[in-house]
Amino acid sequence: MVSKRFVLKRLLLLVPVLFGVATLVFAILHLSPGDPARVIAGQRATDAQVAAVRADLGLDDPLWVQYGRYLVDIVTLNLGESYIIQRGTPILTILRARLPVTLELAIYGQVIGILLGIPFGIISAVKQDTLTDHLTRVGALTGISMPIYWTGPLVILLFAQFLNVLPASNRIASQFDPPVYTGLITVDTFVFGLQSGEFAAFVSAASHMLLPAAVIGVYGMALISRMMRSSMLEVIRQDYMRTARAKGQGAKITVMKHGFQNALIPVITVIGIQFGTLLGGAVLTETVFGIGGIGTMLVQAIEVGDYPVVQGTVLVFAFLFTLVNLGVDLTYSYLDPRIDQ
Amino acid sequence: MSTQTQTETDSTRRGFVSRLRASPFLSDLLSNRLALAGIALILAMVAVALYARIGALVGFAPTYAELQSSQFGANPSLAAPSAEYPFGTDIQARNIFDRVLYGSWLALKFGTVTVGISTAAGVSLGVVAAYYGDITDNVIMRTMDVLLAFPSLLLALALVAIFPNELGLWRAVTALTLVYTPRFARVVRGAALKVLEDEYVDATIALGATDPRVLVRHVMPNCLAPITVQSTLNFGLAIIDLAALSFLGFGAEPGSPSWGLMLSNGVSQGLLTGDWWWSFFPGLFLAVTVLGFNLLGDGMRDALDPRMREAVD
């Protein structure tokens, strides 16, 4: 069990980190070159117009006043409005529309990574120092050495260009316009399919998901199988494993029942951390596969200088990342109560 | 008397080499075939990089300016790989083979700077935090926590936006240095705390050694192993991240023969026309280089972990 005190302590420790995150983002945005007032007013605006916009935005106030206002805004979940890419739309609305796109990709990728990584890791550990082990390890190391912006184009070339069996970009073929319930396109089209009996849109969405999810999955598989292997190797050497075997229990059952459960604990950490990395890596995957999630939006916002979008996105991602890490820590202490003490 | 002095100097002179020989870390590492393969890959890449760089300076390989500018007339545009153009040519008729070779110089140079600075900064911060404890420790490590709270590529992207475009890859280097430093600080602080528990540290302090002397002569050398592993693994990551920033358009200056930028052009312009060689070869060299560092780093980590040494039946 995780004690309430432990959870409370972890939550309290979160406060200074989140405060620091918010401060750093504020500092980065204020150090960035470019004048937001000029960006909003447009290139042809007169200096007086620009000055009016600047006063309107409160950019003439002393820095500490701006900082205070910024902190209050964050606490009240007011992240401002986009200047350029979706002018006038609140950042939260934009993020709410785009976040499911990024999350969906990360979830499918992660599931593939887990389903492949865990078995490979176990096999590698059980057959330590055999050819199977060496091949799996080299395979995993190769997997994490190939960046997504290389493997992505390669699978696009192979499956979309030369074999022409899978689509290269976007989330769904352009003739479909599925209703939005959750924002997760495979779920939405599936629900739509159930309602209408027409599953063509779902098939299209699923086939668009296949390549990007597979590319993310292979990368995840490499990390997870590495962790699973070393964690399993450690567990295999424990006394209780020998005891179980001495009692006459078969090798396979011992490994799966006693070994697997205990070895899984550190792997969960890797899975959690990796999920955070996937959110950051979405920038690359979405660029390669032409998917309009948060990643592509962030790149666009940085290029055109849409500061509120950059600020809001980075803040939300950092908060999500921190929460995921907290969740991982809590799961970890739930599975291994010694950590609590 | 004189014989005794003789043996003493002998043993101190022999000290370093014999200590290296006796070190289970090094012998484990050298008996690890994967780690050796990693070293071989890295050395091959260093050789390629030096060939391209020295060639550009001395004249037996194309100069940076030649690689950067378009070569219409000299070469065909978008030629597929052939004996003359082993990796083909790009849309500006540039020989991709020469560009990829020079790219390894850029990757290793900027990777070394990134990892070098973040190692130095992270080691200093980590050792100081561990040694002084209390407020110093808290201020340093909580700052590191904040930096670690961001997904790394995202923080790098936000930081890159601060610096002017003219800095090219240097702004990517600066941003990534800030992103990597906390990782080193955290690992080194942990290792240093363990070293500080040892009695020889107390003894040195009791003998009147100054703080810098204790840290530099006694604590740092004993943290060397985890630092080396961390640097090696991060070298691979640095090469990937530097190229990623270039790929997204926030790194190398336009026209530069950096792998990330070549990949970016190859993907945005060559993907749907099927000119696969444009993005294939830069990525291949990048992956092979990173694989070298990962093999070596992984081997080092195994060699450091005594639990992995004994075989199990």
From TrEMBL, chain A:
UniProt protein name: Peptide/nickel transport system permease protein
Write out the annotated subcellular location: Cell membrane
Q: Which GO terms describe its cellular component?
A: plasma membrane
Which InterPro entries has this protein been placed in? BPD_transp_1_N (IPR045621), MetI-like (IPR000515), MetI-like_sf (IPR035906)
- Gene Ontology process terms (BP): transmembrane transport
Q: Which organism is it from?
A: Halogeometricum limi
Membrane topology of this protein:
Multi-pass membrane protein
| Transmembrane parts of this sequence | 105-126, 138-160, 199-224, 263-294, 314-335
Q: Family, per the entry?
A: Belongs to the binding-protein-dependent transport system permease family.
The ABC transmembrane type-1 domain sits at 99-332
The protein's matches in Gene3D superfamilies, at most eight in alphabetical order, are given as: MetI-like (1.10.3720.10)
Query: Which CDD domains does the record associate with it?
Result: TM_PBP2 (cd06261)
PROSITE patterns this protein is in?
ABC_TM1
Q: State the UniProt keywords alphabetically.
A: Cell membrane, Membrane, Transmembrane, Transmembrane helix, Transport
From TrEMBL, chain B:
Compartments it resides in = Cell membrane
Q: Where is the ABC transmembrane type-1 domain?
A: 104-297
Q: Which UniProt keywords apply?
A: Cell membrane, Membrane, Transmembrane, Transmembrane helix, Transport
Membrane topology category? Multi-pass membrane protein
Membrane-spanning residues: 34-54, 110-132, 144-163, 169-185, 233-252, 276-297
GO CC, one annotated term = plasma membrane
Query: What GO biological process terms does the UniProt entry carry, in alphabetical order?
Result: transmembrane transport
InterPro entries, sorted: BP-dependent_transpt_permease (IPR050366), MetI-like (IPR000515), MetI-like_sf (IPR035906)
Q: Which family does it belong to?
A: Belongs to the binding-protein-dependent transport system permease family.
What's the protein called, per UniProt? Peptide/nickel transport system permease protein
Q: Which organism is it from?
A: Halogeometricum limi
